[in-house]
Amino acid sequence: MKPTPSYCSIITGILAFLCLWMVTLNITAVAGQNRALVIGIDAYQDQTISFPATAKEDARALAGFLEKHLGFQVTLLLGKAADRAAMLKALQSLSENAEPEDTLLIYFSGAAEVESLYGYGWWLGSDAIKGNLQSYLEVRTIQRILRNTGARNVLLISDAPFPDAAIGSPVAESRMLETAENQQGFSHAVLYKSRNETDPPETGGKNGLLVSALMRSLSLTENQLTGIKLFSALLSKTHESGAVFEYRSLKTGRDFSKDFVFTLPVKEKHVSKPVLVKEEPKAQLSIASNADGTMIRINGQEQGSAPLERLVLEAGRYRIEARAAGYENITEEFRLAPGEEKRLELTLAIRKPEKGRLVIRVSPENASIQFKTQKLSYSPDMTLAPGSYSLRVEAPLYQPVLRDIHIKSGEKTEEEFFLTLKPSYENSLAMRFIPIEAGVFEMGSPEDEVRRNPDEKRISVEITEPFMMQVHEVTVGQWRRFVEDTGYKSEAETGAGAHALESGFRWVLDRHYNWRNPGYKVTDELPVSAVSYNDVQNYILWLREKEGLYYDLPTEAEWEYAARAGSSTAYAYGNCLSDDQANFAANSFRAGCAVGAFRQKPLPTGSLQPNNWGLKDMQGNMWEWCRDWYGKYPGNHNALIQNPFGPETGERRVLRGGGWDTDMDSIRVANRYSMPPSAAYANIGFRLVIRP
Predict the structure, then answer these.
(1) Which of 92, 180, 213, 416 is the most buried (most CB within 10 A)?
(2) Torsion angle of alpha carbons 41, 4, 117, 115, nearest 10°?
């Protein structure tokens, strides 16, 4: 990113001459202290923010000039150190410590923004984020700070656009009263660069356009110069360049009743004989501290570590800063009289440990985070005192995780908790569920599979989220709990009845057939049958409310993924199926496969072998309702499809797995069947999944 053109060097030149005049300021009877805050930012955390190219170096040069030549007490903020908090703290300190006779000078060079509709504006500290106003320092905050200062003479210079809402009318000489008559007036003023579309050209020399013009203006022979005259002379030399600068009153709630008046020294044509002045006796300062290795700075100059004995200093006002590792910094101000011997005993307070930050990421997102031993509640990016903490992270259906974490002073601790599903879960109806992990499989059948149907075209499928699947089909007893709790009547009971197999070969619809009487004697251990898809949806809603978990039917893809259990053959157990692996019409013929028994009725759930993932009766016993409307598989074999489900609407719902009467070819894993959602048959049941 290329920085924007800067006028830091220009503003530095202005400040140097203004400060020189302020040394001889002839406004008040009592001389005060010169205090300055100098800010130069050429490094921003957000690299999309433009800034003056030489802001940092010009600010550094200005600060050195003020301290060395004009005796200013300077607070200097440069680059990354000049964040919003640091600027705000420095402004507050400058304002609060000022006395009426003091002159305050504030200089800013960096990025700024002005809102044109209402005239608001902001200075951008080094930690500002583009467009985030909370990260900006609002000019109204600066006004409020300066409103409370005791200093009557404040000059703010902004090498950046300044908002209209913060300034008054241009300073006009006709509005100023005689200085001698307004000793208690205020001259809170601002000199700033107005917003303009293009920056004025550089002069080609070391200094910018404004500095060069200012240098020529200094040839004025008057021994007194007001801010207005200086500004007028400056504009006369820059009017052809297109540069726009403003000199206005700063709105701080104080009556702007006078202008800065500077008395310039008169150059004498002849050098008079030197006058001998009796030198005042110097003062002596000794410093001790309660903290080992306390570093001492006096008026911004490093003096070494305490104890310090008999430092020889001129009489005057001083500011001392003390800092030591593990202790809070302190700042004190004092005066030294001529010949005084002063001793300072500094007492630094032990620094409280800086808090650390804690950021936790969890999966699943609904997991709860609890502190085991402390009465604390977790919130994102919370602060904690340094030390060790015990955490428990848990979520329904997942195994809880216990972990001790350690928070370090001033550091951010990041922790990740990835919970895994429980190996097994049993609800209040004795339904047992096991986890089915996410994965990829080939759905459908290969083209050479015997008795393959046209709607089984293979596609590559990814199941992206784990789920819990019921080990067995829902039993008569588990359905009965629902009926007893709600009084529910199935569609077969309230309508034309259900279909039952009569004489071993004919399906008959009769109003006497339903889940209580599906054409064979029922017990609570048998899988429930003769319930429609619509009946099952009512059962699911009841179970969700009762258990507080998200029960559902599996999608067709989830059902086949779980039924295959990692296999790619016609059956989960291979290319043939035996009657000890599934309950079906095993006496049906399939080339190369042995013939078994046809039991002609369902078995109690879980009577036969499980598949490789521990699920039972996925093939045979009962056809099982799936959540999808029946339709063609989406996509094609060359694309990986994530979590497919059927059409948005339809007339028939998918059935999978085959029933106790189904022949060997039709009970293949890939075989698809469908029925209207109101259909009720003595060979159709269901099993559930829980979505975590």
Answers:
(1) 213
(2) -20
Examine the domain organization and report whether 93 and 112 are in the same domain. Answer: yes
For residues 79 and 56, give the distance between their C-alpha atoms in angstroms, rounded to a whole number: 6
Q: What is the DSSP string of 218-272?
A: TT---SEEEHHHHHHHHHHHHTTTT--EEEEEE-SSS-B----EEEPPPPPSSPP
- If one counts every other C-beta atom within 10 angstroms of the C-beta of residue 201, the result is 12
Return left, alpha or beta for 381; rule: phi > 0 is left, psi -120 to 50 is alpha, else beta: left
d(CA 69, CA 58): 16
Residue 180: domain span: 8-262
Residue length of the chain: 692
On whether residue 535 sits in a domain, the answer given is yes
> Could you tell me if residue 272 is inside a domain?
no
> Which residue in the block uniquely carries the two structure tokens 């013929």?
589
pLDDT digits (tens, 9 = 90+) for 555-582: 999 999 999 999 999 999 999 999 999 9
Helices (H), strands (E): how many in the chain?
10, 39
CATH number where 291 lies: 2.60.40.1120
Q: What are phi and psi of 380, to 5 degrees?
A: -55, 135
The total of structural domains in the chain comes to 4
pLDDT in tens, 372-418: 877 899 998 899 999 999 999 999 999 999 999 999 988 999 999 99
Q: For the domain that residue 659 is a member of, what is the CATH number?
A: 3.90.1580.10
Q: Is the pTM of this model over 0.85?
A: no
Any domain includes 270: no
